[in-house]
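Troubleshooting entry. Yesterday's outputs looked truncated, so today I'm pasting the complete records for two proteins to confirm everything comes through intact. If either block looks cut off, that's the bug. Protein one:
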Amino acid sequence: MADRYNKTNQVKKLQVDQVKESILDSKAERLPEITTSGNFEEASNLPIYNNGIFNSPIQHAIVHTRYKIGVDGYLNIYNGSKTNLKIAEQNVLKDLEIIRQQSTAADVRLLAAAYYLDLKKSYIFKSLVIKNIEDQEKQLAKIKVFLQQGAILKSDLLRAELKVSHQRVSLLQIENDILIGNQKLNILIGQPDNQVIIPVDDLQTGKFDLKSYDEYLALLTAHAYDARLASRETSLSEIRLKNIKSNVSLKVGLYSNFQYAYPENFLYPYYASIYSLGVAGVRVSFPISGFYLNTHKQKVAAIEVQKQQIIASDVQDKVRQRLNEAYLRFKESLTKVDVAKVNVAQATENYRIVRNTYFNQASLITDLLDADVQLLQTNFDLVGAEVAAQLQYYQLQNVLGNL
């Protein structure tokens, strides 16, 4: 849904369409240029000043009405491969826009995953807190019975009630987190703000396929968006250098002209009649001044190629660093999930023991409340670790260019 409805993606797709049209426009330059033109005019008599401009002239009668209509054509045969280079440049620009569009789409997908997983985490937190409140209320009922029997102090009841009150406030905060996350995700995927999204899938971090770092590194150059962009930017600078070099090259083209005109004053003697004339030929030119006018432009373009090559190498280094970081963080997140599962098991057993000892009057209410907090917190930590691991997996795929 993010791919289809996200406005940022839509803009990027339109930019790709623009470049595709630019390629077609560049190819159209191979077609002949055809121009039609015409003119109509009225001319005065032709005064001839035989005795100087300050004396009366002799009025020489001419044909006053004049008109002409014609067609001109030019077909480029060779211009230093400028047309081919322009098409190649537009193709590289198209590749750049496609890669940028793919990179933007991947970023949007990663953001959608982050919003979705955050919403999923809030729903799980909500269910954990609701269950905890239910358990605390049952436990509170037992504490009230113990108080009536005089087995405990009233402070135990107050502390237990305070604990339930805090949990209700936490539940309200989580419910607001759900509403906020729901709206953020709806906006991202182009849906109405109030549409309710309830994530139904489970967090299954055990299904992730973790390859070796070397395997990921082998995929990096071919798929990583930044590396591909840097490579195409280098190619673009090389094409532009060739284009500047072609400024000093032979240009060959065919031209033609056909026209109807009145009166005939092309050849003497002139005729007050309509005439037609067609010409065709080959035009060859060579810009001699290009040898000295093009020198510095060529050097600037050559420096640009060198700069892009260094930038591409720097991008490769940064992408490798990002891959290494994402890879290690992903492995770290999986370890945290395993540790969190062990902590949940230990906290569950600890809570069971403390709860039994408290109601057997062998431990304090503070021990019971601490054990309950630890159990709830370890469950939160487990959910947070699983969400972080799944999001880190998507982050790794984004660095690789596979998201």
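Protein two, checking that the full record survives here as well:
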Amino acid sequence: MTVAADPSASPVSPIRTDVLIVGAGPVGLFAAFEAGVIGLSCQIVDILGRVGGQCIELYPDKPIYDIPAITSCTARELVERLLAQCKPFDVPIHLEQRVETIEQRDDGRWTVRTQRGLVFDVAAILLGAGNGAFVPQKLTLPEAGPLETRHVHYSVPRLADFADKNVVVAGGGDSALDWALALRKVARRVTLVHRRAGFSAADSSVELMRRAVEAGEMDFVVGGIAALEVEDGALRSLTLRQIDGEIQLEAEHLIALYGLVADLGPIAQWGLTIHGGRVDVDTSNYESSRPGIFAVGDIANYPNKQKLILSGFHEASLALRKAYAYAYPDKKRVHVHSSYDAKLAEKIGAAG
């Protein structure tokens, strides 16, 4: 897979491909592989800054037991295996790109634009975006907004940005603990804040954090953030609400890692039939109410829908076979079992 460069610095020409896959989670990655298997070109866009979707953002090291032929693997391992499977087809992945508008042209193809200036010319669109675009869950405190990117953060762009700073990391999941542990090596002081003493992170991360606290390498405080104290436009401290009252905690930077929330965003304006925040599809091919737009994975809605990764794999496989007819309307696709597909074997063998 190829992570594409940021196009925002200069204008770009439309990128022509057969299918645009929206979402780089497990289902989107498998769809890219399936597209290559049946002879479709594709590109992937994702609003997040890394591949893996909600699996990587929410539970990267939690075990998954229901992937066929794999007894057990973590979400991180699953994404790595899917990337390896896609490698022979060298599919470009455009990260931090949110699809904003779509327009169907007279020739039946679609013009798709992202918020950062990418333009795609595609025969079909495959929505594999989970429950929509996942965005960080932000603080609701009024003083947080003006401090964003300078003193209040919802991700960690570079560890070096926090060198010799007093940093508070808020959250109880894998991301919060992992970043707190990493920052303790570069920041002047790191304090992990969580509303309770229990965590949703991997046991190994919790144990490592507790050892670091015992060794005096970082601090841990139970409490909820009630207010931010600002002086001359800069963060100075936090007010933490605890059972026995409130305390003040000095901080130059606050990194709030409360997980992601789903937001359909512009997809809700595309004229699709949507119920409960999910796109209605025809289960014979997982096509939406607009021909040429497909929905697979958690974003797809139909009777007896099961939100399972393996269900998304099946949905993507059938959707792409219908998408083939849009990409090559005058060409009949002949089904060949992968075991007997000499070209596929050669491509995968050469890549390996």
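Both blocks look complete. Sanity check on protein two: The longest helix spans residues 309-327.
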